[in-house]
Amino acid sequence: MRRFYHSSSLKLNTTTALDDFAARHLAQVLRAKVGDRIILFNGDGFDYEAQIKHVDRRDVSVEILNQSANPNESKIRIHLFQALSSNEKMDLVVQKAVELGVQAITPIIASRSQMRLKDEKRDKKLQHWQQIAISACEQSGRAVIPEIYPVSLLTESIAQMDDAALNIMLDPEAKTQLNQLASMDTPSHINVLIGPEGGFSEDEIQLCQSKKVITVNLGPRILRTETAPIATLALLQYLFGDFV
After folding, report:
1. Bridge partners of 167?
2. How confident is the model at residue 115 (pLDDT cuts 50, 70, 90)?
């Protein structure tokens, strides 16, 4: 069944009107009919099976039939701190990070960051990235929507990290490879720092190391800033999460 996000609360045996986007997509694109069934989610961790009771070009109403816990969340909480990049690259990172199970994303500005959003554009960007996260949840079968936090300086993000978490920073010159962390006890929380196109500066790397952030590499090839988080998150899910 098709899955759609619903921004309001959902209750069993009640009828509710769908949000405009879902209603238009069902009515005008999918040509849904009365009696068709769909899955709704609103971020509370549950899936809701619903049956269409009314449909026209602009409005769709459904009855909530069943509620079930969604089992698709990773057992490890991953917070991705991703250096800002161009619009298309950042959109890709948000989309794929959500598909790969992150619970939070914070866009960061490092000393070599080439992208620096003006204050008046930051709120719009956050809303845009949050919508990408919602769409990625629809596609990937998740029912908990990752939080996209406001743009932060690298130094601010480091200060907020929990010492009890596994904190890692990607550095192509690091002596430790990410897969060498497999011998550790499975962490419940992982913070991942990914740098900009020019990488983190030496001062930033030293600062992170002083805060007990582990610098790791992914092998001999240097990955682009939009490729690195995808590879890193996939490997972390394999080492500690639910990839088999």
Report:
1. 191
2. confident
